[in-house]
Amino acid sequence: MTLPRDVPADLIRSALGDIVPYEPGKPVEEVQRELGLERVVKLASNEGPHAPFPAAAEAIERALSEFNRYPDGGCFRLRSALAERLGVRFEEITVCAGADAVIGYVCQACLDPGDEVVTGWPSFVSFVLDPLKVGALPIRVPLRDHRFDLDAMLEAVTPRTKLAFVATPNNPTGTMTARAELDGWFERVPEHVLTVVDQAYFEYVEDPDYPDTVAEYARAGRRILVLRTFSKIYGLAGLRVGYGVGPEPVITAIGKVRRAFDVTSAAQEAAIVSLDDTAELARRRAGNREAMAALEDTLRRHGFDPVTPAVANFFFVETAEDVAELNDALLRRGVIVRPMGPFGAPRALRITAGTLDEIAFLSEQLQAVMPARA
Predict the structure, then answer these.
(1) Rg, Å, the chain Cα set
(2) Residue 241 phi/psi, 5° resolution?
(3) In 134-170, which residue ranges form alpha helices assigned H by DSSP?
(4) d(CA 132, CA 100)
(5) What is the pLDDT of residues 21-76, one digit of tens each?
(6) pTM of the full predicted structure?
(7) What secondary structure letter does DSSP report for 135?
(8) Could you name the CATH architecture of 14-51+279-372?
(9) Of 3.40.640.10, 3.40.225.10, 1.10.238.10, 3.40.50.1240, which CATH number belongs to 64-274?
(10) What's the first-to-final CA gap in the chain, in angstroms?
(11) What phi and psi, each to the nearest 5 degrees, are found at residue 44?
(12) What whole-number distance in Å separates Cα of residue 39 and Cα of residue 60?
């Protein structure tokens, strides 16, 4: 007996008809298996290059004995720890399976068919895909000098606009939106718009003009939902845990659409102990600073002009080369980078700062690939 190959035409929601689903980068094991390579370096997904904090690894080990139990669906201890650290109320924090999940949930909670969102573009694909999934209309506002153009975004706001997405640093360009720009935005954005500020790379940024949007806007009463994650500098991407800070009615609405047990016990325990290890956080921030300098030097020596200043852990590189061909050539030599077509930049690559050894490996492969293409 086989499953039916056809279903009624109206069974699948019409809003999904033209959506191209997000396609993640290839995992290391798949590339090794397909191409028969001994060494593969992944510089594609903006993960931190190091394992979880030592204290987090110990917490995961301790949690093993309780894996037969469902996790705390309300993430009580982690939400409480975050509320205390950030100076907000427990009811103003949601914890989900990554900051990306918060994006999806806020779209489910706020958007009806025909509503609009505005976002800079190219930017994180979920800012477009998740509104489309619920029948809303994403308005893509072109970047200016690879940065969010908040003035143009304000001009794109209409009475139907409910959400405005601002990624700072922006993925994929690595550029940030400064405090003065956000100050001006909040002075002018209409009251009916919820501004969703994605700070997934918050812990990497050392620029004094970069704002802490929880302290400076959320706690000041602005209509904002701030997104952060443990996937990047904390090294917990595989466990999927992130959070949002915003007005209690928004957090309550997210709770109505959020899956009850989407954050595992291991993720919650690892995140809690990671918050306290400020020394390890500082070491990783310094290591990323060194790696970014090495990566920029490598790219420039091989004829690329990465977008700067890049304040996170990756570079955006526009190239006259055939992006698909260059990506394939690097892949066949064991380097996974990320073509930016799905992000709205078909002539660009995004390259993550790994370890210094991984960056040296990238340099060797670029040296082999680029002359062959001359």
Answers:
(1) 21
(2) -150, 125
(3) 150-156
(4) 15
(5) 887 777 888 889 988 999 999 999 999 999 999 999 999 999 999 999 999 999 99
(6) 0.95
(7) T
(8) Alpha-Beta Complex (3.90)
(9) 3.40.640.10
(10) 56
(11) -120, -25
(12) 28
